[in-house]
Structures are given as structure tokens and as C-alpha cells.
């Protein structure tokens, strides 16, 4: 007896998603606002290759010896290709590969692509926007990036937000901090638990992140990075906060905020100085504001070590990543009215019969090339079905092109609201349509 083979599933793996047609109006709305703001702030778009060498992400992770285990990769044609967990390493790779260091500094780049963020149980896909400034170490760059993030979220009009911000200082400062943090976590190993100690082998920042979820009281007694800042690091942070105060950025200093593996932006070892999360504020209850929502919409900071990890060349950089899907979901949940993408069609071309159907495609092209917004459907055969589609588009005029009209070289123009119609020779239809559209707005 032949054994039954298990049916193959063609569905996407858990954690992945498609951008389906019914949601495209939301994505178009979001991108239009974002593109306008990025142009105002002089950022240039770069579109990245769909995969990278796995070695890039191993390099970008710095001293994280566990990085290779988290990379989703596959060998193909002698190369080890990998999905991205963040876009910052890819932007830095492109900066060096395309010799952008020869350009005037700073170089301001943005890109958008799906990323696969590793998780404890399964990977999670995000469609992210990444914005980076490379070649300038001043706090003014951090401030500009934070201002830009604020303007983007404000333009969506989907809730108040707060910027949680912290500093881990320069390389000297973070080295001193990591030393005392490791000592603290080892000293409290029994109380902290096995998960924290296992995470400590990966990175102390990850260990502290887990400790905060399992033992907030002990995590609250952990050393803070601000206690180990060099003088120059303190000055950098002080000047940045002055920028934010002047610009009325809604921020809070959160000394527990650290760069982590699962943040979707940079590796912990690449991050220097400032780290920030934008979070939407939770809903108000009885007039009292609750704490911000935990999931950040924007994660970012300064990554002055990233260029050195990837190419061996020291180059200052800062940037952030935005989860575009979170914005789209909030727009849908809050039932925000989204304007129609593109110009609203004025005319619907309907056809009936084989001869008319064959000629209607060229007629559609003539109308479209004349600059008249037009829609049509070759898949529906009945006039009634096509006129129902015209009504859904909200057009004012329908062109009815049947067997009789095809033989006579004419087309019937009907105003849908009044039902008034007239027959027009094909050679005059463009001029007549322009007159009708002009007279009816």
C-alpha cells in the first residue's frame, strides 16, 4: 500500500507577510508624506540588493560571537547569502562599495526594504524605512535625525508619541560601563536566573534587557551608563538635549534604554553615544495619561563603530529605522480617511462583443494618452456589470462601445447620473471627452 505523502504547504512561513492590494492606499499615503519630508531634509534614496553576504552581518555585530547563529542564510552558487535583520549594515556597506566617502560630507541616505528580525521563538518580518547620516560626528546630526522622526510621525496624525533617549557614551565610556555591568550580573547570578546568565554570554545589554522583564527590582539596581561617561560624552549628550529642548521634542531620559540585538537597528557593539526609541503614548483613561506603549515605532542612535567593523575604516554615522507596518496598522485601526491614490478617473470605457473588445484596448490607450483619466475592464462581458464597476470608480461618464458602434466607427457617451447619452464618431471622441470633462469639472 502506497504511503500517503504529507501535502506541501505553499503559505508563507510564520512571521512573514505580503502587502496586499486592499492596503496599498495606506502604504501610498504613508510613502507620499515620508518622501516629501525626506526631500525637504535633503536625504537621497538608495535601493539595496535583495540579499547580502552573511559575512557582512557577522562583521557588523562586532564582538558578538553568537551573531552567526542568528543570521538566516543559505548557500547558493558558492556564496553564503543572508536576509537582513536591519538595514544599517547594508547602507554602510553600500557607502564604502560605491566610494561615497569621496563625496562631500555628510552623506545622507535612506532606503526601505523588508527585514527579518530574529526572535526567541520565530523570526519576525518588518517593512522598515532606514535613514542614515554618514560622515559627521556632531550632536547636530543626532538632533536633525530626531527632528525628522518627529515630523514624520506628526504628519501621520495618529497619536501622541514620546522619545525615550539615553547615552552609553564613546568607546572609552561604554568599555568602562560594560565592565561594571558584567560584574554586577555575575555577582547576582543566582538571583538573576539562568536565562540572564545565558544571555550574558551573548551580550551584557541583552542580559540586562531580559533581567528587566524577569526581575525589575534587581534590574533597577544595575549600574547605569551615565555614571561612566567621559567628559566629551557628557558634553555631546548635554548639547543634544539642548537641541531637543529648543525644538520642543517630547522626550524623556531613560537610563535603562540600551541597544539590543532584537531592536531592529544596529548591533549593540556598533552603537555609541545616543540611543533612542520613539513610542506612541498609550490611550488616556479618565484624563490620566498612562505609560507609553512598549513597542517602539522608531529605533535609532549613533553608530560610530559600524564603519570600522565592516571595512576597518573609522567613520562617524547615525540613523534610525522606522517600522512602516506599525503606522499602517494604526491608520487602519483608527479608521483614518485615506485620500485616493492618483487622479480620480472621469471616464469608464465599456465594451460589448468580440469586435468591440478587440478594438477597445487601443481606444483606451488613445484616451489615456490624451491625458484623460480612464478605467476599463476586458474581463466583464455584460454592460450591466461594467457599469456597476464604473459606479464603484465614481466616474461621471461611460463610453459604451458595442458591435454596432464598432461596425459604424462610433461610440456612445453616457452621463451616468442623468442617463443622457449621445453617439459620437470615434475620430471626434477625444475632443468631445475633453469638452465634457472641462464643462463638468
What does the model show?
The chain is α+β, with helices and mostly antiparallel strands and 441 residues long. The chain has two domains: 254 residues, Bira Bifunctional Protein, Domain 2 (BirA Bifunctional Protein, domain 2, 2-Layer Sandwich), CATH 3.30.930; 88 residues, 3-Layer(aba) Sandwich (Rossmann fold), CATH 3.40.50. Strands 1-5-6-11-10-9-7-8 form an eight-stranded mixed β-sheet, with helices on both faces. Strand 5 and strand 6 form a beta hairpin. Helix 1 runs antiparallel to helix 5, helix 5 runs parallel beside helix 11 and helix 8 runs antiparallel to helix 9. The radius of gyration is 28 Å and the shape is elongated. About 2% of the residues have low confidence. It catalyses: tRNA(His) + L-histidine + ATP = L-histidyl-tRNA(His) + AMP + diphosphate + H(+). One of its GO terms (cellular component) is cytoplasm. One of its GO terms (molecular function) is ATP binding.
Short synopsis of the structure:
The chain has 441 residues and is an alpha+beta fold. It is 40% helix and 20% strand.
In percent, how helical is the residue content? Answer: 25-40%
**What is the β-strand count?**
16
Strand content: 15-25%
Shape: elongated
Mean pLDDT: 86
Poorly predicted regions are 284-292
| Structural class computed from helices and strand pairing | alpha+beta
- The count of helical stretches stands at 17
CATH architecture of the largest domain: 2-Layer Sandwich
**What is the name of the CATH superfamily of the largest domain?**
Bira Bifunctional Protein, Domain 2
Instruction: Please tell me the total number of domains.
Output: 2
- Give the N-terminus to C-terminus distance in angstroms: 73 Å
